[in-house]
Design a protein that fits this description.
By secondary structure, the chain is of the alpha/beta class. It has 3 helices and 7 strands. It has helices spanning 50-65, 125-135, 144-149, and strands at residues 27-29, 41-43, 68-73, 84-87, 90-96, 103-108, 112-118. It has a 7-stranded mixed beta sheet, sandwiched between helices. A hairpin with a 2-residue loop joins β4 and β5. The longest helix is centred in the middle third of the chain and has 16 residues, at 50-65.
């Protein structure tokens, strides 16, 4: 498939807090066409089981980006990584790269790459939501590792003031 045959990504709603069903990928993507930030989105897997988590991720990404051909993962951060998975009747190749525990690389077509921050499964809810929200800003120039350790903003009161 030539890159010119790849449809542009569909924009996702810019919502942080969205109810998800069990087994659903917890995912945010940048909601602009610019793709100038360091990251294109954020993903919060619930476990380190590749087949379960990557299958859910690829299924939801395919709905919005089109067919995914390859996923690059850090071998040290995941339970056994197979070389390929069949997801929704399509073969998706998996590669293990030293990309770091905090990033997954997604390829659509031959050369269209997306970098997603990976929020570790055991991350506290507020920290995960904050890191994911920061990762999808179009002007983000902060690496995933730094986003994951950045301090949380101070809590706000109901009227929007800081406590």
């Amino acid at each position: 498939m030539a890159d010119s045959d790849i449809p542009p990504p569909l924009l996702l709603p810019d919502e942080i807090h969205q109810a998800v069903r069990p087994g659903t990928a917890l995912l945010r993507l940048e909601t602009t066409h610019s793709r100038q930030g360091v990251l294109d989105g954020a993903w919060w897997p619930r476990t380190r089981k590749v087949e379960q988590e990557v299958s859910a991720l690829v299924s939801v990404l395919t709905e919005h980006l089109g067919p995914i051909t390859r996923v690059g993962l850090d071998a040290t951060a995941w339970d056994e990584i197979p070389t390929r998975l069949v997801i929704d009747d399509r073969v998706v190749h998996l590669g293990s790269f030293p990309v770091g525990d905090d990033t997954v690389l997604i390829t659509r077509g031959d050369r269209d790459h997306f970098a997603l921050m990976v929020v570790p499964p055991d991350t506290e809810l507020d920290a995960a939501r904050t890191a994911m929200a920061r990762a999808v800003h179009a002007d983000n120039i902060t690496q995933a590792t730094e986003l994951l350790v950045a301090p949380l903003p101070p809590p706000t009161t109901e009227d929007g003031g800081k406590t």
